[in-house]
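User: C-alpha cells for this complex, please. No commentary.
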Amino acid sequence: MQGDKRFRTLWISIFFGCFLLFLFSSSSGPKQPWNPVEQLIVEITAPFQRLIRQSIDATENFWMNYFYLVDVRSENARLKQTADALRRENNRYRELLATHERLQKLLQFKEMVQRPATAAQVIGADPTGWFKSIIIDKGKDAGLSWDMPVVNASGVVGRIVSVSKNYAKVLLIVDQNSAVDCLTQRSRDRGMVKGTGGRLCKMDYMAKSSDVAVGDLVITSGLGGVFPKGLPVGTVTEAKEGDGKLFKEIDIMPCVDFSKLEEVLVIQGADRRLEDAE
Amino acid sequence: MPPKAKERSYFCLLAWIVGAAFTLLKAVDRDPWGVGILDVDLISLLTGYLFLSFGRIQAGIFALGQGLLMDVFSGGPNGLSALVHVGVFWGIYLGSLLFNFQTARGQVMIVSLTVLLKNAMWQALSAFFFGNLVLSASILCGAAISVLGSGLLAPLLYAVFDRMRGFHAGEEDAPDLDHLKEPPGMADHY
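Assistant:
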C-alpha cells in the first residue's frame, strides 16, 4: 500500500516536470500573442488589478495633498524666510559695493591732491533749511581744524567753519556765506565763486573783457589760502554781460551733487607745491 | 516737591527733549514727517503750549534754548536762529493779546500768525544779511502749507498735551495767565 502511494507521487511529479519542460520549449521561440485562454484569464483578472492600482493611487494622493502638505507649508515658510534673508544680504552687499566704489574714487582723488587728507562721513545738515552746511564725524582728534578745505571725488565741497573734539561743521560752497577764489581752466580768468543758497553759484568780479563761455570748467586758484590750486569747482551754465554793470554775470553749476553727499575728504597740512617753490 | 510742580517739571523736560530731538531729526532728514510738503513747526507749537500752560518765562527760555541749539548745527551766523525763535516767542505773546489763547480758534490764529512771522523773519534776515530775497512759488507755497498745517494742528496737539498731563478742557494751571483771561461773557467755548 505504501509502495503504491510513493509510485503515484513519483508519476505525478514526472508528469508536471514534463509539462513544465513542454511549456519552456513552447516559449523558447518568438513571442506569441495571448491565446484565447490567456486572453480570458486577463479579461477576468485585469479589472481587479486596476481597482487595486486606483486604490493605491487614491490613498497616495490623499496623503500627499493633505497630510504631507503640512510639511510643505512649513518648508515654504522656511524657504521664504531664507529668501528674505538672502535678499537683505544681497542689498547689503550692493550697498557695500557702492560704498567701495565711492571710497575708491575718493582714494584716487586723495592721491591726486598730494596732501594728507582724512575721510569723513556726513552725519547731518543744516536744520533750519536756510543755510547750506553739513556736520561730519571727524574733529580735532582726527587732526581737523578751522578753515580746512573739504572735497570729494567730484570736486570742492566747502570748508570747515566750526570744529569740536569729534565733529566739525562744513560750510558748503553753495551757501550764501561762501566765497572761493577761482579761475576758468581754459582762459585762466580769475573770479570769485559765491554761493546763492540754491543749487547754483555765481562767479563775481569777472571783467567784461574776460573770455568765459558756457561749459567752461572752473577750478580753484589756490590764492585764497584755503583750497589747493586746481580742484574742480563747477561748470559755467550761463555767462552774460549786464547792461551798465562792471562785471559779467556768470552762473556756475557745482561739480558736487550736494543732495547726495555721504563721504568727504578733509585736506590737511600745508600745500607741498608752495613749500617746494620756497 | 508737590505733585503738580513735579508734573510741570516732567512735562517741561519732555518738551525740551522733544524739541531737541526734532531739531536733530531735521538736521538729518529735511522731511521728518515723511509727508513731503507738510512741514509742521513743532518748536513753535511747543513754545505756544508752554506759554499757554506754564507762562512767559518758561516759553521764552524754551524758545531761546531751542534757537541756540539750532545755531550750533546751522551754517548761518551765530545767534540768528536764536533771534528768530525769540521772535516766535514774541509773536505768541503779542498774538495772545489779540486773540484768546484758551480757545481753539485763538490757538489756530496765534500759531498760524507766529509761524508766518517766523518765515517772514527768515526771509527778511536773509535779505538783510545776504541781499538774497527768495520768493519763488514753491517756497511761498511751502510756507503757506506750513503756516496752515501748524495752526490747524495746534488745538488738537494742545488737547493731547492736556490729556497727557491729566487736565480736562477749561482747567488752568499757569501762574501768570491773567492777561489771557477775558470777562466771562466774552469767553468762547473750548
